[in-house]
Write a structure and sequence with these properties.
196 residues; 67% helix; Rna Polymerase Sigma Factor, Chain: A; mainly alpha; Arc Repressor Mutant, subunit A
Length: 196
């Protein structure tokens, strides 16, 4: 009995793709495009840039998939590609002085719930308290963007993507201790910035 396309594992999809069934690639795009976007958004904080990077991720994967050896899980490989492309875009933007729009409300204001953000359920807060919370959240996101890239990346993967330390180490190709240290330093630095 053959598996339906929805029930295929990533390895099955990749195997079929390598054997010439190029249509199965859409399964990988459906499964991972939101994650690629969230990683890019976490690094770049621009919806347009994140969308561009997410598209580039899958163009790169489509071209490289025939040579994918499976040394790592597909998802780990995809995260690495997304992180590398987001880093490149960040450096490109920085070197050209691109204006950074930092707003965690951007995706919600545009009626698009696909982007990451800090979602807080606050039905009992007064309008003043909601405004204070919104201002604080914007301040936190702005300060995260001001962290050194190595700290920011690890913190985004931990807090936005909710990855385990082990998975972050795999994605960023670092030792577990290095990741724990980066996240601890990022949180420390963020705390200091918010207290000042």
């Amino acid at each position: 009995m053959s598996k339906t396309k929805d029930n295929l594992s990533d390895a099955d999809v990749i195997d079929r793709f390598k054997k010439g069934d190029k249509e199965v690639f859409s399964i990988l795009v459906e499964r991972y495009s939101t994650r690629a976007y969230q990683i890019a958004y976490g690094v770049l904080h621009s919806r347009e840039d994140a969308e561009e990077v997410a598209q580039d991720v899958f163009v790169r994967i489509y071209k490289a998939l025939p040579k994918f050896r499976g040394d790592a899980e597909f998802s780990t490989w995809m995260y690495r590609i997304a992180m590398n492309l987001a880093r490149n875009k960040y450096r490109w933007n920085k070197s050209r002085g691109a204006k950074q729009n930092i707003s965690i409300q951007a995706t919600r204001e545009n009626n698009d719930d696909s982007g990451p953000g800090i979602q807080v359920s606050t039905p009992e807060l007064s309008p003043d308290s909601q405004a204070e919370l919104s201002e604080f959240t914007n301040t936190v996101m702005r300060e995260i963007q001001n962290l050194p890239p190595l700290y920011r990346e690890a913190l985004v993967l931990r807090n936005v993507e909710e990855m385990s330390y082990e998975r972050i180490a795999e994605v960023l190709d670092c030792k577990l201790g290095t990741i724990k240290s980066r996240i601890a330093r990022a949180r420390d630095e963020l705390r200091k910035r918010l207290e000042s």
